Amino acid sequence: MKEDARKRELEYQRTIAEKRMQQLAPVPEYVIKRYRKSKHWRVFPKELIYREIQQYVKQLGREATICDFGCGDAINSCEIAKIVDNTKIFAFDISPDLVEVAKKRIRINGLEGRVECIVGDAEKGDLKGRNFDIMLALDILHHVDVKKAVPPLIEATRPGGLIIVDEPIAYSELLKRIRDKVPVEKDASPDERQLTKQEISYLCGLLDNVNIWYFRLFSRFSRFLRNRNKIDQGYPLTKLALLTLGWLDVGLITLLPFLEQLSGGIVMIGRRPE
Question: N or C: which terminus of the chain carries fewer CB neighbours within 10 A?
């Protein structure tokens, strides 16, 4: 990441950290219950990711070491530690402000022995010598230079280890332009973007046994559902709407694969080459 972009990113994350510090709470039991089951994994990206982690750890048959690259306030790290037994998580981020929030979240959840969080930068070699079983890059690569940031992540994963990427994409320039003009508030840092088809192809070329799931075709309209993040606490009609949009995406993309090009997000799961 260029120095001027880094400064803008850190300033933006400072304001985010101030808000998150006021919202800290233990991982709710309903979150743990939902993601342990992950019964709607084909519709919700996060359920897919947590399901894959659970299956991999079970197959591993021992404690799994997980790296949460660009962890932010460590919400994913803490959820995974609560949901998936026999895991130890190393979380890191370039933002000192978010890492402070993350450390407090870890303490609130009583996870000091299982989740470690530090300030770090993969591009500067802060993962050198590591050998993780699972590498997570969740909503982070669109903030960085993919060709500089990803090789150190792969190098820090053991041969045959699992690598999971969850990112927004923009294969269609027309849709990208339309998105930029839609008068909807976007929670985005100054220099972030959606990954291109060329960047996704580059990532695929670095991994073995790659599987890709496409999301947010029609389900991108879920942003207009006010209670979309509260479906585990009620709001059955909102949940029904989300499931309907999600399964519509699955059906259309299955029948008409070219619609992948119009999707707004992907989950990519592969292995580090042996």
Answer: C
Count other C-beta atoms under 10 Å from residue 185's C-beta: 6
pLDDT single digits (tens) 61-84: 999 999 999 999 999 999 999 999
CA pseudo-torsion sign 245, 247, 250, 256:
negative
- Can you tell me the distance from the alpha carbon of 208 to that of 239, in angstroms, rounded to the nearest whole number? 35
Q: Give the other-Cβ count within 10 Å of 198's Cβ.
A: 10
Tabulate helix, strand, coil % of the chain (nearest 5).
Answer: 50, 20, 30
Lookup: tokens for 17: 């950290």
Beta strands in the chain (DSSP E): 64-69, 87-93, 115-119, 132-138, 157-168, 208-215, 265-271
**Does the predicted model carry a pTM greater than 0.90?**
yes
Q: How far apart are CA 66 and CA 11, in angstroms?
A: 28
Distance, in Å, from the CA atom of 31 to the CA atom of 80, rounded to the nearest integer, reads 10
Distance CA 148, CA 55 (A): 30
Residue 222 backbone dihedrals phi, psi, to 5 degrees: -65, -20
Separation of alpha carbons 143 and 6, rounded Å:
10
Polymer length of the chain? 274
Burial class (CB in 10 A: 0-12, 13-18, 19+), 15: exposed
Q: How confident is the model at residue 178 (pLDDT cuts 50, 70, 90)?
A: low
For residue range 107-137, what is the model confidence (pLDDT) as tens digits?
Answer: 999 999 999 999 999 888 889 999 999 999 9
Residues 94, 127 contacting (CB under 8 angstroms) = no
